[in-house]
Amino acid sequence: MKRREFLGLVAAAVASSPVSAATKKRDPAVGILWHAGSEQEEATFLGEVRRGLRDLGYEEGRNITLVNTYAAEQYDRFAKNARRLVDENVDIIVAVTRPAALAAQQATRTIPIVAVVVPDPVGSGLVASLARPGGNITGLGNLGVDLAAKRVELMREAVDGLTKVVLLVNPSDPGLARIFVEESKTAAVRLGLSIQVVEIATAEEIDAGLAAISQSGRTGVILNNDALLLTQAERIARLATARGMPTLAFVAGMAKQGTLLSYGPDNLAIFRRSATYVDKILKGARPADLPVEQPTDYQLFINLGTAKALGISIPATLIGRADGVIE
């Protein structure tokens, strides 16, 4: 056998050997820091991430791996979950909410991080600027804090005779809660409304928190832009309605869960869009060079069933401006 033929046979044998298969490059791994307690609880938003990835040609088990972690609304767990993802050497971390993004930032300065639904990424110290993040973090904001005043105005417009607004906040994220309260108070004072702040750090505190609200005149409840309050919105709306208090939530479609009003961005679209950032980074883009995307479309939803239960007549002018009306 000629030397050239012999070397060709050796090369072919090596290429088909078990060692070669074992050393084949693994699929890219994307770790996700979820705030809820299970895949079932995050099914809606996880489904949008998967949908976005599929639209870009990715399929779990074929050319990408998702490593999902859950904090069960206990924000101190984010640090442990972020370290786990770093130890597993994932290629990208998707951090959902501001506390998750801060935990990921503490865990690694090298693995790319896509922060999702973070209200104030610059003020939080996650990025240098929206246009040029400058480090290993980029992502998609939701301007939750900036809309605080607008939500007070909408509650005042929707509820005739409103005299007071109650702000539900989660003290587990004190920075975000403080800014939300300050922005809301400024608007309330301008509109001649009194204000009360009620802190809810766990689902178990909801009943006592709502019971502690002192009602003098017509009182409305506004939920802070927080993951715990998002997952508990239906329960909060039900209990508040039973006490005669209208509620306003911060994500576009949350009125479907029973709140009187909801005003904010389309979070489903934001999660679906996060797949685009994952794709760009896997193809070589640096987070430092990917601008943080902010929503440009905010939607107002009104639940007329809740309005009827509360004995509230929503002005026709406001209904006419709504993006969605739930009967």
Describe the structure.
This protein is an alpha/beta fold. It folds into two domains: 9-143 and 267-289, Rossmann fold (3-Layer(aba) Sandwich), CATH 3.40.50; 145-264 and 298-326, 3-Layer(aba) Sandwich (Rossmann fold), CATH 3.40.50. The chain has helices at 3-15, 18-22, 43-55, 77-87, 98-107, 148-158, 174-190, 206-211, 227-231, 233-242, 267-282, 304-310, 316-321, and strands spanning 29-34, 65-70, 92-96, 113-118, 137-141, 162-169, 194-199, 218-223, 247-249, 261-264, 299-303, 324-326. The chain has a seven-stranded mixed sheet with strand order 7-6-8-9-10-11-12, sandwiched between helices. Strands 2-1-3-4-5 form a five-stranded parallel sheet, with helices on both faces. Helix 7 links the parallel strand 6 and strand 7 (194-199). The longest helix has 17 residues, at 174-190. The chain starts with a helix and ends with a strand.
